[in-house]
Write a structure and sequence with these properties.
Blueprint: E1 6-7, H1 30-33, E2 36-40, E3 46-47, E4 50-55, H2 64-73, H3 75-81, E5 92-96, E6 104-109, H4 119-138, E7 143-146, H5 158-175, E8 182-187, H6 190-203
Parallel strand pairs: 1-3, 2-8, 4-6, 4-7, 7-8
Antiparallel strand pairs: 5-6
Helix pairs in contact: 4-5, 5-6
Bound molecules: ligand AR6.
Ligand AR6 binds at residues 42-44, 54-56, 62-66, 68, 110, 147-154, 186, 188-189, 192.
GO molecular function, one term: ADP-ribosylglutamate hydrolase activity
GO cellular component, one term: nucleoplasm
Keywords: Hydrolase
């Protein structure tokens, strides 16, 4: 038993701040809103069904969130990853989570942007979120956390990435309402926390 693990009951459902909602293209849907959390902290501590990993094509580990996940999981994760034949940009592959409190890790490879993005990168980032959610559903996994894929070393501008992340999750939940109980946006930086707080009302509006 580890006191630093964070179970789902300690991750509150996202709530509007009470400020006037941002202009939204989407209909208010309280059932969907109840499935969303914003959590600032270390994704490796979450005791949920699956955490997404912002990996590279080798799937053999790296820095950033990938490094933290491999450190927490231990060497058996790398061993399993080494059997998968890598992963293409936008695709997702599932493994066990070994020493982590989550049940599974869903590895995905974000686009390398280095500060500028076009439609190719945007679509690849969308594919990352979508394919992680689809992989979770295929494995009957109902609680999933995402880091801010591609916005670290890979240089995707966070204020553009947040739009892709929120839009893809919103549309997935609309299309698959019975398959998913909770999607956690796990931010690490204060700036991403602020960004998600300001943009969540546009994708998950209240009445
Ligand atoms: N929990 C949650 N988020 C984290 C954590 C953590 N423990 N640590 C960092 N972040 P990055 P990328 C945030 O660079 O841009 C690796 O070397 C971080 O603040 O990890 O997709 C891979 O092997 C940022 O917001 O991923 C690849 O080579 C976010 O995670 C490459 O980096 C993503 O930053 C992938 O680059």
């Amino acid at each position: 038993y580890r006191t630093d693990y964070i179970s789902l009951d300690k991750v509150p459902v996202w709530k509007h701040s009470g400020a006037a909602s941002a202009k939204s293209l989407y209909k208010a849907n309280d059932e969907l809103n109840q499935k969303i959390s914003l959590f600032r902290g270390d994704i490796t501590k979450l005791e949920i069904d699956a955490i997404a990993n912002a990996a590279n094509k080798t799937l053999l580990g790296g820095g950033g969130v990938d490094g933290a996940i491999h450190r927490g999981a231990g060497p058996l994760l790398r061993k399993e990853c080494s059997t998968l034949g890598g992963c293409e940009t936008g695709e997702a592959k599932i493994t066990g989570a070994y020493g982590l409190p989550a049940k599974y890790v869903i590895h995905t490879v974000g686009p390398i942007a280095h500060g500028s993005v076009g439609e190719t990168e945007r679509r690849a980032l969308r594919d990352c979120y979508y394919n992680c959610l689809r992989t979770a559903t295929e494995n009957q996994l109902r609680t999933v956390a995402f880091p801010c894929i591609s916005t670290g070393v890979y240089g995707y501008p966070p204020e553009q990435a947040v739009e892709v992340a929120l839009k893809t999750v919103r549309e997935y939940l609309e299309d698959n309402p019975a398959q998913m109980d909770r999607v956690i946006f796990c931010v690490f930086l204060k700036s991403d926390d602020d960004l998600y707080k300001s943009r969540l009302p546009a994708y998950f509006p209240e009445d």
